[in-house]
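$ run holo --ligand "NAP" --emit tokens
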Amino acid sequence: MSIPKILVFGRVGQVGWELRHKLACIGRVVSVDYPEIDFSKPDTIRAAVRAAEPNVIINAAAYTAVDKAETTPDPAWAINATGPGVIAEEAKRLGALMVHYSTDYVYNGAKPSPWVETDAPGPLNVYGQTKLAGDEAIAAVGGDYVILRTSWVYGARGANFLLTMLRLAKERPELRIVDDQTGSPTTSECIAQATAQIVAQVLAPAGGLNGRSGVYHLTSSGATTWFGFAKTFLSKQPAVPKLTPIPTSEYPVPARRPVNSVLSCQRIADTFGVRMPPWEDALDLVLETLSEASATK
Ligand SMILES: NC(=O)c1ccc[n+]([C@@H]2O[C@H](COP(=O)([O-])OP(=O)(O)OC[C@H]3O[C@@H](n4cnc5c(N)ncnc54)[C@H](OP(=O)(O)O)[C@@H]3O)[C@@H](O)[C@H]2O)c1
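-- output --
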């Protein structure tokens, strides 16, 4: 059997970068990114798929500037809603599996318990609306697809809350951090590992998706607030600034965020056997990677 080909959109993003590493032993990975493909130009998406003719397409590209999307929504709609629909059409034409990432921000956060995939979405901001529209566009095409809704993504590289807070902790005597939004910090590495596990199952000799197309939650287990998350990793640093918990009302930003972003991951465990680690354990691995990297500098 020939080696399966996997096309990854969003090569340099947090998840896209990890995917290339985790998928390398499963198939031949071809990865592309902006500006060689531009999701606001659907022809560039089609050309990339037609050049690669992959067995699996993974879309890790997205417009992730949540606050900026409120004032400049057009690129968010093109990249998060239109682009994924075009990929889904191309995947269906080839009979390829499409894996796509979505977000906790499709929910309104008002539910007091973890969200399940059958809960009604109700995005509070433009980013969430565009991501939900992307999910719906993929489902409407009707090919083989797996949409993984994740949350609070971070890792040892890329633009994320952990790296921003570690930098600010060196620059400021006090950090005031929101303590009334609850969610599950999830590492880009765990997301990529779980994706590789699913792709390997589908590509296995007796594999296939077998009617398992759908939306799945994929986050670390457990939950905390932004303040609790920051306190956990900052307290392990040599010098810690004063940490002050604040309500969202004291940190005004353009986009509203859900109060409760915690997602139940039972469906992905039951369907694909994917079980994610507690967020604290995954955090320790990222901190270890960062300290190894600084030790070798
Ligand atoms: N970050 C989070 O906290 C979070 C939370 C929940 C869900 N998610 C979802 O998880 C997925 C991965 O997120 P991430 O944090 O890895 O994203 P990221 O680091 O922001 O990476 C996004 C990728 O999309 C590419 N991109 C941007 N504009 C593009 C365009 N016009 N055409 C083609 N590609 C373009 C970026 O390229 P450039 O770098 O060159 O712009 C980058 O490679 C996304 O679907 C996101 O919505 C993220």
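-- notes --
Residues 10, 12-16, 33-34, 37-40, 60-64, 79, 101, 103, 131, 150-153, 158, 188 surround NAP (CB under 6 Å).
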